[in-house]
Amino acid sequence: MTEIQLNKVLKAYGDVEVIHGIDLHVNSGQFVVFVGPSGCGKSTLLRIIAGLENVTGGEVVIDGAVVNNVTASERGLAMVFQSYALYPHMTVYKNMAFGLENSKMQRSEIDARVREAADMLQITPYLNRRPKALSGGQRQRVAIGRAIVRDPKAFLFDEPLSNLDAELRVAMRKELAALHNKLGGTMIYVTHDQVEAMTLADVIVVLNAGRVEQQGTPLELYNRPENTFVAGFIGSPRMNLMEASVVMGDDGGLDLMAGGTHRIALPPVSGLSPGDNVTFGIRPEHLEIVDADRADMSATVDLTEQLGGETYLFCTPEGLPQITVHQLGQFPVSEGERVHLRLKREVLHLFGEDGKVIANGVPEPEAANGAA
Known about the structure:
Layout: E1 4-13, E2 16-26, E3 31-35, H1 42-50, E4 57-62, E5 65-66, E6 77-80, H2 92-102, H3 107-121, H4 136-148, E7 154-158, H5 166-183, E8 186-191, H6 194-200, E9 203-208, E10 211-216, H7 218-223, H8 228-233, E11 240-248, E12 254-258, E13 262-266, E14 277-282, E15 287-289, E16 297-306, E17 310-317, E18 323-328, E19 338-343, E20 349-351, E21 357-360, H9 365-371
Parallel strand pairs: 3-8, 3-9, 6-7, 7-8
Antiparallel strand pairs: 1-2, 1-4, 4-5, 9-10, 11-12, 11-14, 12-13, 14-20, 15-19, 16-17, 16-19, 17-18, 20-21
Helix pairs in contact: 2-3, 2-4, 3-4
């Protein structure tokens, strides 16, 4: 069980700074996922922890010891790459045992470790095969098994599922989660796929342009994003984000004026005043299709996706960008039809002009006025 800490870690290539003073604490036994768009620095940060990249500034601390000048081979970590990097001329058994043989470990111990890992990963029947005789998922299991037999302080995964097809990725996600439950070890996992992040992580670290935008449990990030970047990145489909201006409401509250025609009533909100420009966000499942007299806005249906158990509507309100509406079950609607939409206030997100959160959910205007 290993604790990993980054203290104001910087990384630059010449004059170009790519990691900007990151502070991070990975507790022992946690499954931490680094997620973010391509080029955000997540793989670079993982390589810094592994010892494959030197830091320009700051400290990497493993179990209380600064390891800035400790080589990758001496840090006691195991890394699983996007590429399986298996030796094609060796059997599965030899691929898993090779590193241990080089460390002069006794053969009986090597055999016990390889067979235990193979049993855990359900690859025992393939121990005498070579990699070319394996499927992609089986090869990835071998690469993970090669890491397990080393009994490392922590596991580092760099987009290990990105070469697999969609169905196999789902299956391997379940296997990785089960593996973490069995081993209980510290794991850091890099992905650009936020669905992987949501389903695997104890803690998600959202990176953008070499900085941490937010870190927390998957549901903390989903329910309480701290800025528009996290709001738009976490969730599939993504949160609907629209711009509006704040005006006085007829009932003493506030209204959001969006697209020039849509007026969305709010109660008084701390940090929000008439004249402010804001971005409001609402997730697809939090848009209700209602009668016109209860609606906050109306929209034209551009496209529908009927998935059997659920339906996605892609709609365009007048003066606003296209939004996504999620409905459970089969919702019959034709392209070009108008739908009337109401935003659930308790899950409505408000962000200031600087992109930072003002509120994650507000009371219903009627309830707020009644309480007053």
